[in-house]
Amino acid sequence: MIVVGLMSGTSADGIDAVLVEFRGPSSKPKWKILNFASISYPDSLREAVVQFGQGKLFSGSEFLEVLEAVTEFHAKAAQLCDPQSQSELVGCHGQTLWHRPPEKDRRGGSLQVLQAPLLAQLLNKTIIYDFRAADIALGGHGAPLVPKPDVALLGRVGGWRAVLNLGGIANLTLIPPQNGPDRLASIIGWDCGPANSLVDLAMEKITNGKLLCDLDGACAARGNPDLDVISDWLMEPFFNVIPPKSTGRDQFGIADLERRLETMKNMSDQNQIATLTSFTAAIVAQDLERLYQRSFIRPLELIVSGGGSRNPVMLEEIRRRCKGIAISTVDQYGISCKAREPLVFALLAWWNERKYPGNSPSITGANHSVVLGERAIPTSPF
Fold first, then answer.
1. N or C: which end of the chain has fewer CB within 10 A?
2. Fold match between 2-143+341-376 and 147-333?
3. What is the pTM assigned to this prediction?
4. pLDDT confidence of 104, banded at 50, 70, 90?
5. CA distance 92 to 18
């Protein structure tokens, strides 16, 4: 089956799309990426999405306009990726505006905006969407959803292997080995904390909106991180929670950045960006070390994807802090860094078609496995 996968992450900079063919068993599919496309949001839409994610109040009409615009841009991305309309199905994550992890006396919640029936009509395709809701209804976080697809797409090796996504938020997948006593272990994964979210917002603030990210780590490369500040930040409650755990821009957004900038007010701009960049690497390294302390699990390799894999300073900081672990990027496995997440949601849509469970209860905390996603089907006149 040929499927389009669509993904717009917490960076809210646009939509990545893949056209992929799946065949074979659900748990170990044969897959081939046929095409990839990416489309950027206009500045006004990106700003509106970011502001929604920071809790800014909007009118009903303003919310509707954003909802329609997000849907229309998803349609454009799908058409750009699949110009000959080869696909039979579209998996679409939608645009996350807010994520609330579950607490003791309150279930979790997650808001991904998309007018799925409209998208179905625009593309004349069945849309699989709202992938988090079923897991959340079963007491889970609804995130991260990539670990089980990671196992299916990348497979197992002789030891534990880790996959790190550096989008707006950093999340980890730990894949058990194919042999030995740990071969029956559960997949492990969680959201680590900020990856690019704070760096991107800081660059936008420092440059008065001229730059929305630290391209190629150029600014961080000219600065020096403050290791004492980073050590203090690592002691914050979220970074000491034992998984399952999830987060988003609502927690690591503008308000959080302002608090950290106050701590760094005597630093140069370059040192601030270097500190935020190194902070991401320190979070990942701390999480992997604590995993070893809890479970004696240390991965042989760490495969990095997402926009952060294109930041050589962030990648070098991870290499420096994660000694003894071979570091590579997902590109080396036939998946471009921007294609991994839309590929995941294409696979989840294919799994929905096959009624194959897509969540990992050991990761999300859900009561049991469940098929993920809802359906929107294009309608014809009676």
1. C
2. yes
3. 0.92
4. confident
5. 11
Backbone angles phi, psi at 231, to 5 degrees: -60, -40
Architecture label for domain 147-333: 2-Layer Sandwich (3.30)
Q: Return the DSSP state at 106.
A: B
Question: Where does residue 290 fall: left (phi above 0), alpha (psi -120 to 50 degrees), or beta otherwise?
Answer: alpha
| pLDDT of 382 above 70 | no
Q: Which residue has the tokens 């800014």?
A: 56
Chain centroid offset of residue 266 CA: 33
How many CB atoms lie under 10 A from the CB of residue 379? 9
Single-letter amino acid code for the residue at 360: S
Q: Is 29 exposed, middle or buried (0-12, 13-18, 19+ CB in 10 A)?
A: buried
* Cα–Cα distance for residue pair 288/330, rounded to 1 Å: 19
Render pLDDT for 7-61 as a digit per residue (tens, 0 to 9). 997 777 899 999 999 999 999 999 999 999 999 999 889 888 888 877 777 888 9
CA dihedral 52, 57, 62, 67 (to 10 degrees): 30
Looking at the chain, the whole-number percentage of residues with pLDDT higher than 70 is: 99
In sign, the C-alpha dihedral spanning 279, 170, 94, 90 is positive
* CA separation for the pair 63, 68 (Å, rounded): 9
Helix (H, G, I), strand (E, B) or coil at 260: helix
What is the CATH topology of the domain spanning 2-143+341-376? Nucleotidyltransferase; domain 5 (3.30.420)
Question: What residue spans define the domains of the chain?
Answer: 2-143+341-376, 147-333
Supply the DSSP string of 154-203, one letter for each residue.
H---SS-EEEEEESSEEEEEEEPPSSSGGGGSPPEEEEEEESSHHHHHHH
Measured at the alpha carbon of residue 89, what is the angle toward residues 85 and 94, in degrees to the nearest 5?
Answer: 105
